[in-house]
Amino acid sequence: MIELTSKQRKELEKVAHDLQPVVIVGGAGVTDGVMDMVDKSLAAHELIKVKFNEYKDEKQELTQQICEKTDATLVRIIGNIAILFREKEEKDDN
Prior knowledge:
By secondary structure, the chain is of the alpha+beta class.
């Protein structure tokens, strides 16, 4: 996880504003499937939204778990939507 400055957070929030949630946490909670989807989405897009349709009271703790397991950084939680960021890994061309 990287630490974001307040300026970086604001910029990422602006970029994320028009994004639709790509991962939804439902009745089953944060399953391996949800973790896999978050990981793949971050690898493809760097910046994603995760919507909590269920477990709204636990969204802070669940988002922390997701960030730890996927090496993502929480940008902000707005309502029941968490904005996550993870820089793409550089690929060696050697």
